[in-house]
Amino acid sequence: MSEQRLQKVLAAAGVDSRRKCEELILDGAVRVNRKVVDKLPAFVDPEKDLITVNGRKIHAAQKVYFLLNKPTGVICTNRDPHGRKKAIDLVSARERIFCVGRLDADTTGIIILTNDSELANRLAHPRYGLAKTYVVRVKGEIAGERIEKLKRGIWLAEGKTGRASVKILKRGHKESLIEVTIRQGLNRQVRRMLAKVGLPVRTLTRTRIGKLSSRGLGVGNFRALTKAEVAYLKKATAG
Ligand code: URA
Fold it and tell me: CB of 115 closer than 6 A to ligand 1?
């Protein structure tokens, strides 16, 4: 394992928040290989270095990986000054986990939660761009040229979005159901893309992240990823 910031390793091991761990370090409570480390930045290899806090050995946190089917009204952040319900509250884990990327509060569907920041960073990196599929209920009728525009990419404030796959699941006069697959993760991307082609989103659900799917996972429920699924995510973002 590569070197990581000392406060991050302490926080991941459940000692306290990163900020509090920085204070512990600066107060001289932390030793690495028996020597006090009271200056920052400090880097350690949690698998090789012996780290103690006030004389007690800390154990590098085991890496954990979960898939949650997020309900609406739940947010993907670890700290919320408004006290809203958080995705991490729905997953029972002893480790300090966080969401990989985000789903809007009003979006349902699958999201990965983990304490593996290395994998999380890779999954969020546009270079690896795993395909993410959304089922979208939109207001309005699906016309051919709207779908073609979506497929080719849409100009948003950040630039033109990449090519999207679009499937029509149900066509109606007032409302239609479509499946959109994209590889980027811009803020409110699907909602903004659809608004640009005159199809306001009524409901949005993420059903797939690469090979992972929501199948069998009820809204509000979570499960641990299997070893094979974790290996797949690591392989998909390697190199
Ligand atoms: N695109 C959106 O607009 N919202 C989400 O939550 C995810 C993708």
Answer: no
